[in-house]
Amino acid sequence: MQKFRISSCAALVFACLALLLLLLPAAVHAQEYELGEGDLLKITVYDNPDLTTEVRVSGEGKITVPLIGEVQVKSLTATAIGRKLAGLFADGYIKNPQVSVFILEYKSKKVTALGEFTKPGLIEMRGNSTLMEMISSAGGITANAGETLYIQRNIIKGGTNHKDDITITVDLVKLLEGGDITLNVPVLDGDSIYVPKAAFVYVNGEVRNPGAFKITKGLTVLRSITLAGGFTQKANKNRTEIVRKDGKSEKTIKAKMDDLVQTDDIIVVPESFF
Fold it and tell me: Is there a contact between 53 and 65 (Cβ–Cβ < 8 Å)?
């Protein structure tokens, strides 16, 4: 019986820990999140049920609270709003007010997905969203996507209205295939996120599977031919050529197998007649 009681207690402890782990991220998430337009709040004033209300943040970043009226809350956290409201209620309305603010809906963050996303366009995010969450909301990236993602962001210098544009570059191969979590950066309201189309090389002639192939870092002529299934028995390997764009014209150069390919190169493997 003693052994059973210990096991039961252990199970209860584990259950409590599991529940705590589920609730803790949401609590931390809510405390760190900065409010913006469209967020829905529940405001509770303890021992004053008539003042408990649900209110949505306006386009000007304000909420309307009983007794107080309009209050600016844009870019404040839920904890900071609670403190601000407590101070306002204490100013001639309630003695030692206890105010809690809970975020019911996150609606304020909008980012634009451009380029090689499955569902490009305006994406509405909630809370402290990350780049991976944004990519998922946009349906993922297409098979034609390049290896680099760009985040265009406007930042406001402290104490001024001046905005600076910055560009954040993310290696998609390291993020999506390598699992580099340091690249899973937060996305902010107003971000424009662009994934360009990959560059392609074209392999024609005496190869087993002619076609277009995505250019990856360090892709050589030989590797491109390998992607095309390799040479056929009729291939004249030594006469392989590259047709390359040169401004508005094209030039044909003799290919070396260890040459790096360039965007829109056409690799031509001729037939051997001997």
Answer: yes
Residue 206 in 3-state DSSP?
coil
Tens-digit pLDDT profile for residues 202-241: 999 999 999 999 998 899 999 999 999 999 999 999 999 9
In order of start, what are the domains of the chain with their CATH numbers?
24-105 (3.30.1950.10), 109-195 (3.10.560.10), 200-269 (3.10.560.10)
What is this structure's pTM? 0.61
Contacts of 209 (CB under 8 A, 6+ apart): 228, 229
Whole-angstrom distance, CA of residue 184 vs CA of residue 129:
10
Can you tell me the distance from the alpha carbon of 269 to that of 262, in angstroms, rounded to the nearest whole number? 17
pLDDT tens per residue, range 63-94 = 999 999 999 998 888 999 999 999 999 998 89
